[in-house]
Amino acid sequence: MAVEQLEKLVTYYHENKLSHVYLIETNNINKCIYDLKEVIKKFFCENEYEKECKLCNICNLIEQNYLPSLCIIEPDGNTIKKEQILDLKKKFSSIPIYTKQNVYIIQNAEKLNGSSANTMLKFVEEPADYILGFFVTNDINNVISTIKSRCEIIKVKYDESELNIKTIYNDENKDYFDVAKDYLNKLEVEKKHLILYNKDIVLNIFSEREQIRKLFKIILIIYEALLNNKLGKNMENNDFIFLDFLTSKEIIQRIKLVTNLLEDLEYNANIELLLDKFVIELSDVL
């Protein structure tokens, strides 16, 4: 499994064998960032880490993107700008208070331009003991060579053979796709956050666990396609244009909610309660 490649970092961390900077090549940026944040929680958790830790202040801060010693840099438009890197260096110029190390994640590292990459180089070449870095990309060949050559490379590949942005339009997926659009339109556009939609729209058609899982995998793909569009990658279909009002931050929040739901479907027997929880949590992030 892809997550296992990242889980090895937890062992290395506790054995003091981590490199100071990693370049992670993945076929799913959003899932990888989510899983990497879970790994970072395991680095610093104040308790015995458990999924969705509610007791640990560190884990809660990481979850909310409020931990001062964790900085995630995303492209500003089509590139990662020099000013973003200068701001990172300023934030990490002192020893962290809450955690053993300051950790930065450069999302879509291939979008570092010449100026921002050069500004980043000193971080990479002369790392302080209290700084740990991760560059994440789905296009390693376009990561600037001066960065790439100084990183330890990890490949994190997710199994996406079942569904992707192209196959969700297939005839065999049409019912799922239509339900996904109707469901999202009710929740996101009409903003009627009623758990009754779980019965009226979803459970009225799909009742088996695997069917619900497939439906929400398609919903996840829809949100990921929207996020790619926000990051400057053209969407292949205009079926999702009704959700274009969502910001990148809002889409990432939704990706996290759907990812959590898919994970919970593996273990929790009560599907209806999980769906109700999803609608309630979605209303909370609006």
Distance between the termini: 33 Å
* Known CATH architecture of the largest domain: 3-Layer(aba) Sandwich
Q: What general outline do the C-alpha atoms trace?
A: globular
What is the count of structural domains? 2
**Overall mean pLDDT score?**
86
Order of the strands making up the biggest sheet: 2-3-4-1-5
Broad structural category: alpha/beta
What is the assigned CATH homologous superfamily of the largest domain?
A: P-loop containing nucleotide triphosphate hydrolases
CATH class of the largest domain: Alpha Beta
Compute the CA-based radius of gyration: 20 Å
CATH topology of the largest domain: Rossmann fold
Order of helices and strands: HEHHEHEHEHEHHHHH
| Uncertain parts | none
Strand content: 5-15%
Q: Helical residue percent?
A: 40-55%
Number of strands: 5
- What is the overall number of helices? 11
Main pleated-sheet profile: 5 strands, parallel
Describe this structure in words.
The chain is α/β, with parallel strands linked by helices. The chain has two domains: 155 residues, Rossmann fold (3-Layer(aba) Sandwich); 118 residues, Zinc Finger, Delta Prime, domain 3 (Up-down Bundle). 49% of the residues lie in helices and 10% in strands. The chain has eleven helices and five strands; from the N terminus they run αβααβαβαβαβααααα. The chain is globular, with a radius of gyration of 20 Å. The two termini are 33 Å apart.
Task: Give keywords.
five-stranded parallel β-sheet; 11 helices; Rossmann fold; 286 residues; alpha/beta; Zinc Finger, Delta Prime, domain 3
